[in-house]
Amino acid sequence: MAIRETWATRIGFILAAVGSAVGLGNIWRFPFLTAESGGAAFLVAYLILIVVIGLPVMLVEFVIGRRAKQNVVGAFPEIGAPTWKFIGAIGALAGFVILSYYSVVGGWVIQYIVGSVTGGYAGNAEAFFGSAAEGTNALAYDLLFMAIVAGIVSLGVRDGLERAAKVMIPSVVGLLVILAAYGATLSGASEGYAYYLSPDMSTIVGDAISLLPDAAGQAFFTLSLGMGVMITYASYLGEDRNLLHDSLLIVAVDTFVAILAGLAVFPFLFAQGVDPGAGGVGTTFVGLASAFGTLPGGQVVGFVFFSMLFLAALTSAFSILEVIVSFAIDTFDVDRRPATVAIAAVIFLVGVPTAMSLDYLTLYDAIANQILLIGGGLLLAIFGGWFFASEASDELRRGMPGGETLTTVWIWVLRVPVVLVLAYVLYNGIVAVAGIVGGM
Fold this sequence. Notes:
Oligomer: single chain
Strand content: under 5%
CATH superfamily: Hydantoin permease
Structural class: mainly alpha
Helix content: over 70%
Distance between the termini: 47 Å
CATH class: Mainly Alpha
């Protein structure tokens, strides 16, 4: 059995975890969901759920991972709860499904980087998206994106994941700041900010229940919860750290990037009169490409934006692949490189339908985010709050002296509000997926 790898530095762990959280979920998925759900009202619901639901579940994943020092499936038997290992299996399955279509969107990003250089989307952004999003082009660039991700993961925890995160995450944040600052100078910036940052309280109150499913799904997607990433990353911790501090920092940075993404995206859309809610999964690509195609220096701005999006996509993609590779290494005692290549190839094949049709991408996304992630999070909350509460509290207090009151509050938040909200969201997710399948 090979010696288990560990993070070289605390900042490496933090940046890798942030990198998993900061990805397409923040910059591609968050803006179009915000637009589809009415703007600022969705933002408020999302922020509430990040704190009330996302943070407590992240802590469950961290205490399980650090205590077990095992992959997402093997962690549960290691902590004396073998009957619960199906939670880990659900998480691994969720990551498998997500990466199968996430890599397709990553391939779109590469095509848009090329299009920024050649001016390919400047004339007709919708036609360019149609060519990029479905068919052989999408499939070829999907393969390229997966090859890059597999290359990073094959290098290991320190040389691959940690080193890449230390370079990519500061780059993503820096480029987003530049884009947001540039967007603030555009003529439509004030309208974009009003749409994004000025919630109508009556809308929030009236639509609170309907906003919950998408907001909760986005909170889990963007924080990489319910798919075993944080269990896997915490399993590589080699020392006692204050997990609450680390979790708060990861959530804060991720939320900052998500909000910053909106500050960058919506001014560009409103400056060109683009309806932010009209494009669905293509909002970021069609809407922003249209805007970049008409702005002075738009090709340069587009190149910077899509390059930033590519780096963000990579950091999340290699974290998801690591969950499954870690399982293979721990379970079958195989070498990292062949395991990575084989698993990446299978994920690519599973994602072929999503590269050929946007209908399948929408279906995969709904299944993963509204059923698998939420279901996994619900089970984690039940396990951590009711069946593993004493051990979870002890583990959280390691590196956090005098945290008895905080751990008690955390356990009861898991037991009641988290379980109730996620149960409701899961029910709605099942109904929504059934509707999508029925309409295909």
